[in-house]
């Protein structure tokens, strides 16, 4: 997919970072929004109710719904969903490059039917067996609160795009298939996801997902095991080989770094039958695309060698078939990238100190950057994401709301 050609923005937020002045967000409303959003069910592919809530709140704030639309990304993703990415545009009244704020609407399944409980400076799940969904309903609330603030107070701003994406948690599918024309060529892009708002994620690993199917030869395990070819034995030999040679788990080869994981295995029918079929699901990650490809090659080589080592008395061997795809490409933004410089200024404007960070997981920023929109990611207070211990740190969340409003309204 060829990246869109976008001229780098020439911007300076010196006035913003030095003065520390500017419009202040309604933090009580922001808290109310995030609590309401976390209660709405919306796992990957099921984001319709979240989008409906956003639409209602924008309409109540006086938003022009002709500038609110959704694309058809959900019809092109692996997981056919209810709705595509939701895009809201503000025409703006200041001469400045268009800016885009991004957050994803979906949560992981453990967060369905979340019961958020506000206690002091934290929001946690009332149900100890369920998740919270702050990842990324906190980001959704940051964007929504910012848009409402601008609409209700009629704040001056440059042209703005608010992108609420779908299916981030299943391989960044929403932004991968987003209709770029609907974004109107933003030149500065800021994604709000997990962690501290002072953490600026300027790079992330790339991921490859693979399915492996091993076909052996069934036979009676008690009466004639020598006539069979065990698909499970092939899988076991291959996995052991990868582990022994350092190509499974954390991978360090000289200066190259990466990871691989065999996370799913299923096969066999009964203990008295030599297993003739095994299926595995595997992933490989690295900040280097070429090294990630090498990890994939090593995985394939181990399974192909193992298939030759398990032989029946008649010389039969098993076969291995691989299918896979790149979930997302790795990226690394320079410190001089305009969106990075602007994000640093905004963090300092609210009294924070920006900390560059590289993520071991994928973000919407991976595909946005790959498609020609360099995107820096800021946290908005989520802790222990994807677990029942997930929490939202309210001071961090409120800080993210302040940063977002600065990014959306500060004059360059």
Please give a structural write-up:
The protein is of the alpha+beta class and 412 residues long. It has two domains: 14-205 and 330-409, 3-Layer(aba) Sandwich (Aminopeptidase), CATH 3.40.630; 206-328, Alpha-Beta Plaits (2-Layer Sandwich). The protein has helices at residues 14-19, 27-39, 48-60, 134-153, 173-176, 231-244, 289-309, 338-349, 364-370, 394-409; strands spanning 68-70, 86-90, 99-104, 116-119, 122-125, 160-165, 188-193, 199-204, 206-215, 249-253, 256-267, 277-286, 319-328, 331-332, 355-359, 375-379, 382-383, 391-393. A hairpin with a 7-residue loop joins strand 17 and strand 18 (391-393). The protein is elongated and about 80 Å long. Mean pLDDT is 94; it is low at 1-20.
**What's the order of the H and E elements?**
HHHEEEEEHEHEEEHEEEHEEHEHEEEH
- Largest sheet, strands/sense/barrel: 9 strands, mixed
**Mind telling me the C-alpha Rg?**
24 Å
Outline, from the CA principal axes?
A: elongated
Distance between the termini: 32 Å
Considering DSSP H and I runs of 4 or more, what fraction of the residues is helical? 25-40%
Percent of residues in beta strands: 25-35%
Number of strands: 18
Q: pLDDT average, as an integer?
A: 94
Count of folded domains: 2
The CATH architecture of the largest domain comes to 3-Layer(aba) Sandwich
As residue ranges, the low-confidence spans are: 1-20
User: With helices defined by DSSP (H or I, 4 residues minimum), what is the helix count?
Assistant: 10
Query: In the CATH scheme, what's the topology name of the largest domain?
Result: Aminopeptidase
CATH-level-4 superfamily name of the largest domain: Zn peptidases
CATH class of the largest domain: Alpha Beta
Structural class: alpha+beta
């Amino acid at each position: 997919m060829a990246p869109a050609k976008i001229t780098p923005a020439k911007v300076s937020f010196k006035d913003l970072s030095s003065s520390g002045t500017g419009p202040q967000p309604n933090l009580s409303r922001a808290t109310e929004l995030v609590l309401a959003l976390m209660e709405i069910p919306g796992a990957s592919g099921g984001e319709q109710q979240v989008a409906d809530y956003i639409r209602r709140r924008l309409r109540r704030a006086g938003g022009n719904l002709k500038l609110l639309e959704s694309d058809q990304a959900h019809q092109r993703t692996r997981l056919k969903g209810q709705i595509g990415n939701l895009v809201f545009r503000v025409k703006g009244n200041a001469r400045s490059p268009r800016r885009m704020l991004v957050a994803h609407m979906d949560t992981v399944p453990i967060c369905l039917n979340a019961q958020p409980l506000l206690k002091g400076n934290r929001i946690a799940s009332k149900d100890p067996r369920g998740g919270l969904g702050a990842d990324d309903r906190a980001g959704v609330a940051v964007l929504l609160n910012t848009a409402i603030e601008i609409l209700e107070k009629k704040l001056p701003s440059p042209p703005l795009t608010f992108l609420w994406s779908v299916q981030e948690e299943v391989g960044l599918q929403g932004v991968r298939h987003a209709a770029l024309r609907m974004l109107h060529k933003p030149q500065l892009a800021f994604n709000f996801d997990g962690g501290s708002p002072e953490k600026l994620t300027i790079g992330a690993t790339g991921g490859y997902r693979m399915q492996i199917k091993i076909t052996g030869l069934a036979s009676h395990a008690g009466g004639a095991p020598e006539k069979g070819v065990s698909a499970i034995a092939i899988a076991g030999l291959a996995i052991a080989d990868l582990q022994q040679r350092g190509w499974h788990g954390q991978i360090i080869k000289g200066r190259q770094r990466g990871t691989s994981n065999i996370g799913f295995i299923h096969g066999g029918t009964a203990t008295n039958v030599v297993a003739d079929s095994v299926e595995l699901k595997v992933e490989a990650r690295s900040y280097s695309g070429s090294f990630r490809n090498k990890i994939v090659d090593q995985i394939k080589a181990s399974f192909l060698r193992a298939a030759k080592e398990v032989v029946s008395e008649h010389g039969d061997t098993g076969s291995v078939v691989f299918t896979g795809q790149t979930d997302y490409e790795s990226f690394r933004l320079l410190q001089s990238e305009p969106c990075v410089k602007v994000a640093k200024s905004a963090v300092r404007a609210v009294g924070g100190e920006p900390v560059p960070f590289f993520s071991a997981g994928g973000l919407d920023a991976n595909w946005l950057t790959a498609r020609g929109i360099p995107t820096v990611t800021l946290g908005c207070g989520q802790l222990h994401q994807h677990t029942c211990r997930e929490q939202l740190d309210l001071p961090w969340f409120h800080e993210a709301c302040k940063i977002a409003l600065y990014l959306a309204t500060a004059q360059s």
